Amino acid sequence: MIELKNVSVTFEKEDRMVRAVSDVNLQIQAGEIFGIVGYSGAGKSTLVRTINLLQRPSVGEVIINGIDLTQLSAPDLRKARKKIGMIFQHFNLMNSRTVAENVAFPLKGTKLSSADKETKVYELLDKVGIKDKAQVYPDQLSGGQKQRVAIARALATDPTILLCDEATSALDPKTTQSILNLLRQLNEELQLTIIMITHDMNVVKNLCHRVAVMAQGQVIEENSILKIFTQPQKTLTQEFINMATHFDWDYELVLKKMQEANALKDYKIARFSFVGQEVTEPFIAQLAKDYQVHCNILYGNIEALRGSFVGNLLVTIQAEEANWTRALSFLEKHEVNVEILTAGEDAKWMD
Ligand SMILES: Nc1ncnc2c1ncn2[C@@H]1O[C@H](COP(=O)(O)OP(=O)(O)OP(=O)(O)O)[C@@H](O)[C@H]1O
Ligand SMILES: [Mg+2]
User: Fold this and answer.
1) Where in the chain is the domain with CATH 3.40.50.300?
2) Which reactions appear under catalytic activity for this entry (predicted)?
3) Closest CA to 2 of 37, 34, 33, 26
4) Are the beta carbons of 289 and 332 closer than 8 angstroms?
5) Most buried of the four, 253, 277, 283, 342, by CB within 10 Å?
6) CATH 3.40.50.9100: does it fit domain 246-342?
7) How do residues 253-299 score in pLDDT, each as one tens digit?
8) From the CA of 166, how far away is ligand 1's center (Å)?
């Protein structure tokens, strides 16, 4: 388990202090894939670099499996760091060395014989799917292949934790997907704990079990993927989710169409979001039948989130106030989240 306790990092920048990380407390379980999202400058890289003490916290503790890394002697810290691999956006490979030499690099100074090192390097390259590139130089590889080499290199010391700083940000969507598949496979096969910094909620959605949202050095929200996507607490979190689901964009478009048709004033417009089995339950039909609440679906999408489904519906609502109130508690009971988006100025609730 990784525990960050009251971690702050302060930098001195032209006679002023920049608080890059501000009093962060996080617990990340062994075997978990944990996402960190936030805008540029939020402190994501700085925070993640404290986990292997590439960045020493100004204040706080970094406890890995019960040991506070900040208290270790230099040799013990070197040993502890071998259990934490890291990959980056721009791969950071050594261009004057072959793929095999890049992957072998962290094995320098270990007790392994040259033959064992070579076996290990080929096993690692096989695992990440580029054994045939062993003798090639990095500049002959695509971005996705380079990241595979970087992953193999990061795994050379048999780490239990892999830190990924924007590891897919320089890749196209298809290559991103293949790297995410590889990371998921490594997580499952090796029980590797993965910490994934990204701007992209799609990456989080496809890969992570839990996610923390950072702003101005702080973790402002943290939850399971399902909870974050269905019950975001902070506006910033909602912004990130909307980017991934295109909900904002679609919503604007639908709204514009309704405005043009002068239909906006007649309805309340709401967003229903729901999870899992609710997707298959015909609750819209039930609203009409049992509660006389008439919903018209304007737009809908269903997202797959690590085995669960999350639905978003944009609906118009017509109902008598009392029926709507009863319907709301029905929806709440079925864990359908309701957000009223426009009240419809002259929304006569039902004629
Ligand atoms: N070595 C440093 N010296 C001074 N200031 C720094 C240093 N590293 C980071 N900062 C500052 O700390 C803040 C957080 O930076 P950080 O790189 O952690 O953000 P980030 O969330 O990773 O951003 P990005 O998404 O752009 O990578 C920024 O204001 C940055 O300018
Ligand atoms: Mg960064």
Assistant:
1) 2-226
2) ATP + H2O = ADP + phosphate + H(+)
3) 26
4) no
5) 283
6) no
7) 887 887 787 777 777 888 888 876 555 567 888 899 999 999 888 88
8) 14
Residues of the chain with CATH 3.30.70.260: 246-342
Residue closest by Cα to atom 14 of ligand 1? 43
Asked if 274 contacts 311 with a C-beta cutoff of 8 angstroms, the reply is: yes
Residues 63 and 57: their CA atoms lie apart, in Å, by 12
Q: Residue 128 corresponds to which amino acid? A: V
pLDDT at res. 304: 74
- Going by alpha carbons, the residue nearest to atom 28 of ligand 1 is 41
Report the range of poorest mean pLDDT among 200-204, 281-285, 333-337: 281-285
Q: How far apart are CA 186 and CA 184, in angstroms?
A: 5
Residue 13: CB within 6 Å of ligand 1?
A: yes
The answer to whether the CB of 42 is under 6 A from ligand 1 is yes
The domain made up of 2-226 is a member of CATH 3.40.50.300: yes
Identify which of 12, 39, 45 to mutate to test ligand 1's pocket (most ligand atoms within 8 A of the CB).
Answer: 45
pLDDT averaged over the chain? 90
Residue in the structure block whose two tokens are 């009863």 = 326
31 token code pair: 């075997």
46 lines ligand 1 (CB under 6 A): yes
Q: How confident is the model at residue 349 (pLDDT cuts 50, 70, 90)?
A: very low
89-99 as b/e: b if 16+ CB within 10 A: bebebeeeebb
**SS3 state at 2:** strand
For residue 41 and ligand 1, the question of a CB distance below 6 A is answered with yes
Distances (CA, A) of 6 to 9, 22, 51, 58, 222: 10, 8, 13, 10, 15
Amino acid, single-letter form, for residue 242: N
Phi, psi angle pair for 208, to nearest 5°:
-85, 155
pLDDT in tens, 19-61: 999 999 999 999 999 999 999 999 999 999 999 999 999 999 9
Q: What is d(CA 151, CA 174) in angstroms, rounded to the nearest whole number? A: 18
